[in-house]
Amino acid sequence: MDLMLCRPEAWGTHLVHFTGSKEHNVALRERALDRGLSLSEKGFRDVDSGELLLAADEEEVYARLELPWIAPELREGEGEISAAAAGRLPRLVERTDVRGDTHTHSDWTDGVDTIETMARAARERGLEYMVLTDHSPSLGVTRGLTPDRIAEQKLELDRLNGELAPFRILHGTELEIRSDGSLDYPDDLLAAFDVVVASIHTGRSQPTEQLTRRALAAIENPNVDIIAHPTGRIVNRRDPVSYDWPQVFEAAARTGTRLEINGSPRLDLDERLARDAARAGVQLTLASDAHRTEELVYLDYAVGVARRAWLEPEQIANVVGTEEWTR
Predict the structure, then answer these.
(1) CATH code of the domain occupying 95-324
(2) For residue 124, how far is the Cα from the chain centroid?
(3) pTM, full prediction
(4) Rg, C-alpha atoms of the chain
(5) Residue 168 — φ and ψ, nearest 5°?
(6) Phi and psi of 145, rounded to 5°?
(7) Residue 6 region, left (φ>0) first, then alpha (ψ -120 to 50), else beta?
């Protein structure tokens, strides 16, 4: 850990230095040299006179380099400086753009809190809606819902939506994509949900070709809206699976099936795959995958990944209201 002390007048250069990657900082220093300046965390030094020029905030640092301010999430040396110079920086998605959480759970399956408790907590976080996506049956450890229980849950959501309006709970499911590529519920049952989120939890050791076929089977199903945590990774605990990503992105873009950025400790998709997906024309969702109220904050981490992926609001599906989700 680095601990730096500086005068307030030099705060800007210190902040840029320690929030930018090595590549970003090197590119800034080269740009400074082109303007007769030497840049370090301590400030700008005029190469000819030796005068030290301080910058109290980040905007002043970038302005001295004839650039607009570059968000910290983009400071990776991946084209952000040329984009800034050309006036092509993205208007990054912000948490306030996101109107709903598209992946949440309750104690009806493997969650901890009741539906009402989750909904009230989501509303308190400023959301307009949440999609309740309790599990389907084949993932045994989650106590997945049978058709009868789904009907009972729908009645409970109708009651709660009457009490919590204008906040809305959309009826969804986290649908298991089985090892053979079939889906856990029949199409007529899937069509009754507001939102269908499909995911792979089992058979993760299958070859890439087989995993890709499973993902494509779900993407091509017109009832599936979102593929959740596509690689299945859990940071520092479980490695991601591998797909033929060009095939997956092409199918998702063509069918309008969204791919999820899951803000739980999965952080899946990561920023590189999310950026590649968006470039291929795929729309993304941002979700907490919360199983208790304390985990609803994971939505914020999904936003952070999206920002590192250069994503703008129009590339995110849940910046829209509930009317865009209901069938």
Answers:
(1) 3.20.20.140
(2) 21
(3) 0.94
(4) 23
(5) -135, 135
(6) -85, 135
(7) beta
Task: Identify the helix (H) or strand (E) that includes residue 100.
Answer: strand 100-104
| Confidence band for 2, pLDDT divided at 50, 70 and 90 | confident
Q: What does the block give as tokens for 3?
A: 């601990």
In whole angstroms, give the CA distance from residue 17 to residue 15: 5
Query: What is the spatial order of strands in the sheet that 129-135 belongs to?
Result: 100-104, 129-135, 168-176, 195-199, 226-227, 258-262, 284-287
Contact assessment for residue 252 and residue 244, using Cβ atoms and an 8 Å cutoff? no
The CATH label, of 3.90.650.10, 3.30.210.10, 3.40.50.170, 2.60.200.30, for the domain at 8-85 is: 3.30.210.10
Task: Give pLDDT tens digits for 297-316.
Answer: 999 999 999 999 999 999 99
Backbone angles phi, psi at 279, to 5 degrees: -60, -30
Identical topology for domains 8-85 and 95-324: no
Alpha carbon distance 27, 42 (integer Å): 17
Helix (H) or strand (E) holding 173: strand 168-176
Domain ranges of the chain: 8-85, 95-324
How far is it, in rounded angstroms, from Cα 284 to Cα 313? Answer: 10
